[in-house]
Amino acid sequence: MNSQDKGVEKKSGQKSQNPSSFTVFWRNKYARIGLIITVGFFVMGFIGPLVYPAPKIDLTEIFAPPSLAHPLGTDYLGRDTLGDIIYGTGYILEVTFIAALIGTGIGVAIGIASGYFRGAVGSLLMAITDIVLTIPGMILILVVASVVRSGNPLIVAGVLSVTAWAGFARAIRSQILSLRSSIFVEEARLLNLSSFHIIFKELMPNVMSYTAINFIFSVQGALFASVGLYFLGVLPFSAYNWGVMLSEATSFGGFLAPSLAVYLISPIAVITLFTVGLIYLSFGIDEVFNPRTRRR
Amino acid sequence: MKYGYILRRIAILVATLYTVITITFILVRLSPYDPYAYFLSQEASMGIASPSQLAALAEYYYNLIPNQPIYIQYFQYLISVMEGNFGHSLIYPQMTVANIIATRLPWTLYIVITSTVISFFIGTYAGQRLGYKRGGKVDGSIVTFFTVLHSIPIYGMGLILLFFISLKAGLLPSAGAYSANVAPGPNLPFIISVIRHSILPISTFIFGSVGGWTLGMRANTISVLGEDYVNAAELRGIPTSRIASRYVGRNAILPQFTSLVISIGFAFGGAVFVEQIFTYPGIGQMLVTSVGDGDYPVIMGITIIIIAAVLISVLVADLTYQFLDPRVRK
């Protein structure tokens, strides 16, 4: 029996009997908004720098208010704020998505391994998970970052994933434990299928929706943490970075400038918008994968 | 109560603390970045200290004696940490790290505990009310409102409050724990000053976390309202207010306590940002300052103490939960 067959449920009164996943997804208002926002950030990050001029230092326009030339005003060196935001998007996307990939990957691997292979290995993995789970992530991230001090996206993403995987590993494990005793896994075992087959063909598809949602929340967690590390000045300052923008807004006399409100709120607003987009996207994915929560 | 469970929790606490102490040792001593070796080479390059003086300096600041095998250094470090000896600050050499922590920690505990308690009660109350009004016109927009509130990072919230309430409107002080012109002690001006200085940091925490409490309690209430025993209670003619408090509230609040356990760790992480923004003299601000200064003995000491504080609060919250839920108690 193919475990994915369970995902399609017929409902009376619907025009098409088996709406495609994307139709279900798109029908949901939250999912639509979430997808548009998330795709919008990718467009801004990867196409934006090709069409929008790079912010340049212009000492005649320090802390200029919003205008046609500078839609969000300028900073303490006369650089265009909107340009700073657009040029900083690519780095944020890189760091957050790599961090989410690492965290989710480790979480799935440890969760499945400790749920499927019970006994000594499973218990040891869960003991490690329990320990990591109780360590407050932000503190450990801050300390590791203070020693590493690198702005390389891969290294930053690695630092951000130090503790992020643990909660997810635990949740995956409990799902695997209940799936383990379900009929289709029993059947696969009776058919003498390999552990490899059972893990990748029978168990993995069943935790996919949960994994996708966790991936989205990991992106969000990495977003808050990475911008926060730059804001605190723990990671080396670099041009075009939302966290550095926030940090500079509070120094360099920025707080006294009359146009600061726009300069300060711009990075906060994009972070918030991105987060709302991600949360809404997770609502949509939840509906696609869990027919029971679909709106009737 | 189940003693096996308590023992297991305490074992995890000890193992976690041990892990954290070991991680700090590895970071300082064994990572490729090795701040300790950097410290030694710095001191040696100044040419003032003889090898024996160098060893004394290293032990004074880091609790680590150079030229010893690494496992001896590790055990020395473990033992001194367990004795509460975290060495001395590189920036303020006359102060022990333990001293610095003792003067800073109470401020952080005051902010974190006060805000967590207030946020928990406001969010739980609001969430239950919203749960009863589910599906209405107001419900959808309120959920959206809390989702957006929840999406603002804590440092964003802090900066907005600092900028608009403190710097623009001048309503509340922007820095410090109390004014310079009041004498610390149990007198009214001092207490008023402390409260005025803490309103913005505490509000930042509350705005940052109340959305989560509200949405969580709303979802719990809705799921409990669908239970048979609630319908049965209604059919028996039990007054609505009694059902709300005794049947729905009591059951819906239990998962909130589980979240309380997780939120304590988050709150200490958030303290780093909030204290930095409001220049509040807590342990989080000290951690950021030490990171900026490269003051590793202080960084390591604060990390161990913060994590120990979180672990103990989590244990207390966890045991309270065991006590509150009669199903778990048996």
What is the structural class of chain A? mainly alpha
What would CATH call the architecture of the largest domain in chain B?
A: Orthogonal Bundle
Can you summarize the main beta sheet of chain B? Answer: none
Q: Ends of chain B: how far apart? A: 6 Å
Q: Residue ranges of chain B: pLDDT <50 for 5 or more in a row?
A: none
Counted up, domains of chain A total: 1
> What characteristic shape of chain A results from the CA principal axes?
elongated
> Which fold does the CATH topology of the largest domain in chain B refer to?
MetI-like fold
**Average pLDDT number of chain A:** 80
At the fourth level of CATH, the homologous superfamily of the largest domain in chain B is MetI-like
In short:
The complex is a heterodimer of chains A (296) and B (330). Chain A has 296 residues and is mostly helical.
Task: Produce the secondary structure layout.
The complex is a heterodimer of chains A (296) and B (330).
Chain A: H1 21-27, H2 29-46, H3 48-51, H4 81-116, H5 120-134, H6 137-148, H7 153-160, H8 165-180, H9 183-190, H10 195-232, H11 242-250, H12 260-289
Chain B: H1 3-30, H2 35-45, H3 51-62, H4 70-82, H5 97-132, H6 137-150, H7 154-168, H8 188-225, H9 228-235, H10 240-252, H11 254-277, H12 283-293, H13 296-324, H14 326-329
Helix pairs in contact in B: 1-13, 2-3, 5-8, 5-11, 5-13, 6-8, 7-8, 7-11, 8-10, 8-11, 9-10, 11-12, 11-13, 12-13
Search tags:
heterodimer, A: 296 residues, mainly alpha, MetI-like fold, 12 helices, elongated, disordered N terminus, B: 330 residues, 2 domains, 14 helices, globular
What does this structure look like?
- With 296 residues, chain A is an all-alpha fold.
- Chain A has a single domain (26-50, 72-293), classed as MetI-like fold (Orthogonal Bundle), CATH 1.10.3720.10.
- Helices cover 68% and strands 0% of the residues of chain A.
- In chain A, helix 11 (242-250) runs antiparallel to helix 12.
- Chain A is elongated, with a radius of gyration of 23 Å.
- The relative contact order of chain A is 0.16.
- The model of chain A is unreliable at 1-16 (pLDDT under 50).
- Chain B has 330 residues and is mainly α.
- Chain B folds into two domains: 3-82, no CATH class; 98-328, MetI-like (MetI-like fold).
- Helix content of chain B is 78%, strand content 0%.
- Chain B is built from 14 helices and no strands.
- In chain B, helix 8 runs antiparallel to helix 11.
- The longest helix of chain B has 38 residues, at 188-225.
- The mean pLDDT of chain B is 82.
- Chains A and B meet through helix 5, helix 6, helix 10, helix 11 and helix 12 of A and helix 1, helix 6, helix 7, helix 11 and helix 12 of B.
